[in-house]
Amino acid sequence: MKIQLETIPVWDGVKSGDECFICSLMKEAEEDGVRYYLSSAIMTPEVRVTTNENGFCFKHFSMLAEANKAQSLGLVMDTYYQQNSGIFDPLLDRVSSSSSPRKAQKLFSSFFDSYHERENGCLICSRMKDRLDRYTFTVASLYGEDPEFRQALEKSKGFCIHHSEALFKMAPEALSSEMLLSFYKTLATLLKTNLERVRQDDWWLTQKYKSENRDKPWNGCEDAAKRAVYKFTGQARVLDPVKK
After folding, report:
1. From start to end of the chain, where are the E strands?
2. From CA 232, how far away is CA 235, in angstroms rounded?
């Protein structure tokens, strides 16, 4: 597998002190994807063809809507609706002309099947997946080739469980058998150590709401509940990339 290395953002990430720097990088990738599909790129025929054919997942359609770029999103949705109407209108017309509830029910089911099929595949998720592959491949490659990076990673806060799995799956593409075992051990240690740290932070957050602890220091645990969620689930997850 030939994957472009992303050395600079990965090095910046491992130095950042984030709970999962791949989460942080993927949030940037997600925001970049939203900006791209609301930029002048949508005026190019090839981009409009892909948006008409594929569209976006529910989350990223919502992000596009909430960006408040009415003109750009309006252009995207205009031709997207045109393509949908060619699929949906004949089915809805047949429902309207049905002679029995049973036929109408069957035809309406076909309509909703078509709707769900149109929901499959998201262009922003696809762009994010490409970035995720590059980031995880770079992490594993630097671990195998650069002792300084390996040491920095071992001292970091590690990764969320979701992106630890992504690293686990990518590592065989980048590492020899010997380094693969070392990487897996490091990944496991980072998970165990940092899940426990976050658990302890969250526990102290709960204790701070007791009257006897009111005047004790927070010890940086004000956001521990949120960190506990994201350490477990990850952020900016790739939900439904277009199948290649």
Report:
1. none
2. 9
Whether pTM > 0.85 for this model: the answer is: yes
Q: State phi, psi for 122 to the nearest 5 degrees.
A: -135, 125
Helix ranges, 97-223 (H): 101-119, 123-145, 147-154, 161-174, 177-208
Residue 9 tokens read as 């953002």
First to last CA, the chain: 15
Burial class for 163, CB neighbours closer than 10 Å (0-12, 13-18, 19+): buried
| Backbone phi and psi for residue 209, each to the nearest 5 degrees, phi listed first | -85, 0
Strand, coil or helix: 220: coil
228 phi and psi angles, rounded to 5 deg: -65, -40
Of 122, 130, 55, the closest CA to residue 87 belongs to 55
Residue 217 neighbours by CB distance under 10 Å: 9
Cβ pair 37, 64 in contact under 8 A: yes
Of 191, 203, 201, 193, which Cα lies nearest the Cα of 232? Answer: 191
What is the per-residue pLDDT across 142-179, written as a single tens digit (0 to 9) for each?
999 999 999 999 999 999 999 999 999 999 999 999 99
Q: Is the dihedral of CA 112, 117, 118, 119 positive or negative?
A: positive
